[in-house]
Amino acid sequence: MRVGLIGAGGHGKWHRRRIASLDVTLAGMADPAPVEDAGDVPVFTDHRELLSSVPLDVVVICTPPHTHLPIALDALRAGCDLLLEKPPVVSRAEHEVLATALASTGRACQVGFQALGSAALARLVPGTYPRVATVASWQRDDAYYARATWAGRQGLGDGALVNPLAHALMQSLAVIGDDPVSLTAERYRTRPIATDDTVFARVGFRGGATLLAAVTLAGEDFIAGEVIADGPAGRVVLEYPTDRLRLPGSDPVEVPGRIDLLDNLIAHRRDGTPLVAPLARTLGFTTLAAALTGGPLPALLDDAFITDLGAGAGRVRVITGINAVLWRAASTGRLPSELDVPWASSEGALHLTFA
């Protein structure tokens, strides 16, 4: 099995290690920037040169989100199956274009939501939890928003719940197992960036379930990422980054085992093994992500509500009392403006319905 990697730096280095651990051949890489430690693997500065010069079975695409669709279409035309990093595309229109191309070429696309391969997630039965919440509190410094030209910009696949905390949203959607039909969201930023670093989103679903997502990149004490699902048997809590699961009446336990997405894609090619994260499974994510990264700019918080830690590129901005607000929102299903939070604002709020 011959694998190509498009986007070999940054997170692409993680993919290089994963490829090296499997019974496949890294046959070529493409990246406009110099690629370190390539060894005897051919490297191209243009992905089209890679696709036209090297016979490939599978292509891993690890480039900025807004570049995914054209590269994916080129790889499909070259006869390759895809492992496409998340977020897969930046709009529902792009999702439909890619889905059509997959159908016409007969090729497969796995999306890089590796947490969907979790054995802990598999313990939860989709459709049995009418109320779900997800909470995460991370920190990102100024350098994070200067890491690339697309970072912190609207409509290019960046945003707290769309990129770094995308798994919180995708895991919640997997637990609910239904189509989103409405979104009410408040988005906030602690810097003059063009996207959010803090999001509160209330999502309604076709079958009546609800999701309240409360996440921040300007957090206090670290919350790795919890999906909290309430059902007839009680409350289930999944800490998705660690695969720790707490079932009703039990203590949290780590549930070992994750299906590797590239390994799963290769098995799909060889014997038809079902994909863990096919493109079709991510339509709800793309629907919500596109909405959350569009529209008016998020509300810019006043410095009076923010504490700066560190200086220079390593400066971290922390919203005072944010963790308590995250938990209140998750437990009540209400947004900050509905909780009378002092810094809450309707500026940049979203009120959308989906067909």
Short description:
This protein is an alpha/beta fold and 355 residues long. It has ten helices and 18 strands.
List the helices and strands and how they pair.
Layout: E1 2-6, H1 12-21, E2 25-30, E3 43-44, H2 47-53, E4 58-61, H3 68-77, E5 81-84, H4 92-105, E6 109-111, H5 119-122, E7 131-139, H6 142-145, H7 166-176, E8 180-189, E9 198-205, E10 210-216, E11 218-231, E12 234-239, E13 244-246, E14 253-254, H8 261-271, H9 283-292, E15 299-300, E16 306-309, E17 316-319, H10 322-332, E18 350-353
Parallel strand pairs: 1-2, 1-4, 2-3, 4-5, 5-6, 7-10, 8-15
Antiparallel strand pairs: 7-11, 8-9, 8-18, 9-10, 11-12, 12-13, 13-14, 16-17
Helix pairs in contact: 3-4
Task: List key phrases describing it.
355 residues; alpha/beta; Rossmann fold; Dihydrodipicolinate Reductase, domain 2; 2 domains; ten-stranded mixed sheet; six-stranded parallel sheet; 10 helices; 18 strands
Walkthrough of the structure:
The chain has 355 residues and is an alpha/beta fold. The protein folds into two domains: 2-107, Rossmann fold (3-Layer(aba) Sandwich), CATH 3.40.50.720; 119-252 and 279-353, Dihydrodipicolinate Reductase, domain 2, CATH 3.30.360.10. 26% of the residues lie in helices and 27% in strands. The chain contains ten helices and 18 strands. The chain has helices at residues 12-21, 47-53, 68-77, 92-105, 119-122, 142-145, 166-176, 261-271, 283-292, 322-332; strands spanning 2-6, 25-30, 43-44, 58-61, 81-84, 109-111, 131-139, 180-189, 198-205, 210-216, 218-231, 234-239, 244-246, 253-254, 299-300, 306-309, 316-319, 350-353. The strands form three sheets. Strands 7, 8, 9, 10, 11, 12, 13, 14, 15 and 18 form a ten-stranded mixed beta sheet that branches. The mean pLDDT is 96.
